Inverse folding.
């Protein structure tokens, strides 16, 4: 019946007739397949159910042009999941009902567990510890490999390190400059308004200098780099893991810690302090412009006062912190990248986790630094 | 009176300056299994993608089930897409969804079926392809390659299509699984009265399933015909493909029906000469 299949839109219909001897017949005609049924299901299902209530009636399906599993299933359901005793069928439709006589298949239900909530909390805590443990292992592995490289300096992956410095450093100059400049301007304006009330205009230099060089510059740059380069690193390693490129490297005897992870950590440890220096400079420039506009402090005076207002230890502290931030961002990015599973959601979730964890860690470590070095770089 | 299930007229496909197809004419009749064969890069998968409306013709026309894919109304195209099923080479199961949800997705998308009917249909389709109900809550990453293909086939069949597209149905399966998968497709095709368009370079699959074969070479169709007609062609690609060492082995079982003479080895020697 190619014609019937080619025009499946002859609508499914059914009607009830009673013969002279009192037997009730239900006649079905048209196409009873999914394509034709789905639009009329709302009318047909109750009609079928109503006719099926009379167990003695005769079902005549011989005028049905097309029948498929969905149609057969619909009838089967109306008949109460059993074959009606009086049924006329086309021979080619017989097989569809044979399939249905088997007991109904059930979807296995997941068992409900009242402890599920508590277990979920416990699993999250254990998961956190597990992350810490795995990241520590990874760090250890990289340190051991780095020590190994010291003995074979010809194996140090210079091209990878250089490429990573370019990607994480040089290519980030634009965005860090823009953000740094604007933060400098905003900070300067807000401080200027407060300082003016006390006639302490001159202290804008101390305020800007210390806050930008000691805190804002390193943290701002680290957050930007974590979002920009950390996510890229996680995604790169994740895709390489899913496509078995990491395994390919391993079987070639190229440890991926040396070739992929170490270069990223070294590169960020070098490029992040440079980025911080750059961000500091631009932020102070922005602050200087705003101070000149709002308080009338000349550029020359601002610059000559800066070394006296901000002890140089603050700069070293800021740069030292940023080395640690860089290493941590790369370590966290690689750690999450290596745990990406081969499905679409894992890559997204892993990248998000990586960035969020990196930024949180940067801020936590910054707080630790603040406590540890509280007496460094202050005024005597 | 009958319209062709798929009709390709004067099709040109271009990627940049490179012409993949240069004037292809092809018709697929109701109820047949048409196989597209050709060397790597001969554009057989691209031709399949043209039939699915995933690529746009540079010139020419592609009609599927009577509708021009690039001229018809979106609603017509939508209805058309519910009438065909596609099995992608890697299965293309949604990795974030379970096996059950993968097969149920096209049924849910109709938005008219109730949950109970969907569940019955999904479990029936899964049983048809030989997947037990206990695997229904797994995600694709937990399945073996053969099971992924079976689930993908169940998903392709979920809407009871009239037309089934198969892209390399047996690629990546071991010979044993590949054979049982071919059997499964053949059984379902007969049971469900399907028209099948298939891309393959596996000779065993080709011989076992196809009723007609279209050979693509250098952007054109060299031969379209039954296996017997195709192997009698003189084209160097066909001689190489079907009558080489591997081809001869695959054709061994049906050799008598091809009318190539008793002398298999000699024929092959001529072929490779």
């Amino acid at each position: 019946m190619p014609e019937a299949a080619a025009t499946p839109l002859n609508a499914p219909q059914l009607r009830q007739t009673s013969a002279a001897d009192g037997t009730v017949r239900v006649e079905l005609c048209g196409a009873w397949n999914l394509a034709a049924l789905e639009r009329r299901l709302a009318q047909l299902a109750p009609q079928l159910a109503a006719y099926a209530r009379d167990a003695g009636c005769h079902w005549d399906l011989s005028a049905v042009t097309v029948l498929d599993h969905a149609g057969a299933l619909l009838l089967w359901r109306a008949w109460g999941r059993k074959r009606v005793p009086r049924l006329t069928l086309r021979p080619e439709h017989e097989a569809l009902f044979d399939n249905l006589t088997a007991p109904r298949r059930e979807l296995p239900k997941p068992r409900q567990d009242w402890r599920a909530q508590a277990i979920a909390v416990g699993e999250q805590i254990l998961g956190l510890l597990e992350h810490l443990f795995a990241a520590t292992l990874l760090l250890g592995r990289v340190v051991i490999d780095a020590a190994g490289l010291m003995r074979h300096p010809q194996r140090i992956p210079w091209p990878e390190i250089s490429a990573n410095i370019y990607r994480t450093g040089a290519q980030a100059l634009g965005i860090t400059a823009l953000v740094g400049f604007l933060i400098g301007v905003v900070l300067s304006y807000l401080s200027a308004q407060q300082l003016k009330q006390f006639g302490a205009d001159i202290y804008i230099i101390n305020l800007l200098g210390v806050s930008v060089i000691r805190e804002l510059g390193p943290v701002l740059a680290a957050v930007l780099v974590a979002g920009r380069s950390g996510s890229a690193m996680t995604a790169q390693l994740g895709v390489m893991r899913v496509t078995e490129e990491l395994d390919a490297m391993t079987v070639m005897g190229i440890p991926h810690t040396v070739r992929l992870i170490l270069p990223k950590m070294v590169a960020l440890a070098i490029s992040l302090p440079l980025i911080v220096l750059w961000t500091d400079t631009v932020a102070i420039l922005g602050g200087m412009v705003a101070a000149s506009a709002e308080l009338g402090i000349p550029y020359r005076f601002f610059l000559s006062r800066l070394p006296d207002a901000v002890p140089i230890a603050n700069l070293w502290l800021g740069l030292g912190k940023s080395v640690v931030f860089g290493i941590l961002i790369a370590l966290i990015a690689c750690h999450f990248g290596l745990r990406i599973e081969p499905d679409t959601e894992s890559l997204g979730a892993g990248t998000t986790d990586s960035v969020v964890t990196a930024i949180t860690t940067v801020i936590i470590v910054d707080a630790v630094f603040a406590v540890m070095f509280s007496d460094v770089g202050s005024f005597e | 009176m009958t319209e062709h299930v798929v009709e390709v007229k004067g099709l040109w496909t271009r990627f940049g300056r490179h012409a993949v197809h240069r004037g292809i004419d092809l018709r697929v009749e109701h109820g047949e299994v048409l196989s597209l064969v050709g060397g790597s890069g001969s554009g057989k998968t691209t031709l399949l993608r043209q039939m699915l409306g995933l690529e746009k013709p540079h010139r020419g026309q592609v009609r599927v089930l009577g509708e021009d894919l690039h001229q018809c109304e979106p609603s017509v195209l939508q209805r058309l897409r519910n009438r065909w099923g596609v099995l992608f080479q890697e299965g293309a199961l949604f990795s974030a969804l379970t096996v059950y949800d993968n097969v149920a997705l096209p049924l849910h998308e109709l938005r008219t079926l109730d949950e109970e009917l969907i569940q019955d249909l999904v479990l029936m389709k899964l049983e048809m392809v030989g997947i037990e109900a206990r695997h229904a809550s797994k995600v694709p990453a937990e399945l073996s390659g053969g099971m992924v293909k079976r689930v993908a086939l169940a998903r392709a069949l979920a809407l009871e299509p009239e037309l089934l597209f198969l892209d390399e149905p047996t690629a990546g399966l071991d010979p044993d699984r590949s054979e049982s998968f071919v059997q499964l497709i053949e059984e379902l095709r007969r049971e469900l009265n399907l028209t099948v368009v298939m891309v393959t370079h596996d000779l065993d699959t080709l011989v076992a399933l196809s009723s007609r074969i279209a050979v693509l070479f250098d952007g054109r169709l060299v031969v379209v015909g039954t296996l017997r007609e195709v192997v009698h062609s003189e084209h160097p690609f066909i001689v190489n493909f079907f009558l080489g060492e591997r081809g001869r082995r695959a054709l061994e079982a049906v050799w008598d029906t091809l009318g190539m003479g008793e002398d298999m080895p000699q024929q092959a020697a001529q072929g490779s000469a």
